Amino acid sequence: MDWLASGLPREGRDTDRPRAGDLARHAVPTCLPDAPIGELVQRVRQSGWDVCVVVNEQRVVLGLLPSHAWTAGPMVTADQAMELGPKTFRPNGSLDEIAKYMQKHDTQSALITTSDGVLLGLLCREDVERARDAQQPAASGRGSSAQGR
């Protein structure tokens, strides 16, 4: 199971169903804890994001800088402004499970990490919803004969 939680290739059944790691955006902005907010805000926004993942040198997730962190003073460091211990999911996580979490907690994204906490990417709610919508016609067609009973 750790093989799958590390985001390594899958074999067998259900390999055609996308998982969290398949849809995660890998180019999410990152920074080290001592990075000043003043230096980060422009770089992050120019890259098209409004969040930045705070990681250590081994890319282990330490925290998250959400959009409201950008209003902190320019000399405030990432570790002073970050949200500690953000919720993370494994790359083999079910899209249904993650979608339920996102809806319940009204969040637009989820961090995808290995079981050791190494950042693999950020899963966006819109990508999860698009993938689930694409799967529904195929899923509803399989059991349609039982619906009339």
Provide the CATH top-level class.
Alpha Beta
* Structural class by helix and strand composition: alpha/beta
Proportion of residues in helical segments = 25-40%
Give the overall shape: elongated
- Numbering strands along the chain, what is their spatial order in the largest sheet? 1-2-3-4
Number of domains: 1
At CATH level 3, the topology is: CBS-domain
What is the strand content?
15-25%
Number of strands: 7
**Which segments are poorly predicted (pLDDT under 50) over 5 or more consecutive residues?**
3-8, 139-149
Determine the mean pLDDT. 84
Q: What is the CATH homology-level superfamily?
A: CBS-domain
Helical element count? Answer: 6
Oligomer: single chain
What is the CATH architecture term?
Roll
Protein traits:
149 residues, alpha/beta, CBS-domain, 6 helices, 34% helix, disordered N terminus, disordered C terminus
How does this structure look, described?
The chain has one domain (2-8, 17-138): CBS-domain. Helix content is 34%, strand content 17%. The chain has helices at residues 2-5, 20-23, 37-46, 78-81, 95-104, 125-142; strands at 30-31, 52-55, 61-65, 83-84, 88-89, 109-113, 119-124. The strands form two sheets. Strands 1-2-3-4 form a four-stranded mixed sheet. It has a three-stranded mixed sheet with strand order 5-6-7. Strand 6 and strand 7 form a beta hairpin. Helix 5 crosses helix 6. The model is unreliable at 3-8 and 139-149 (pLDDT under 50).
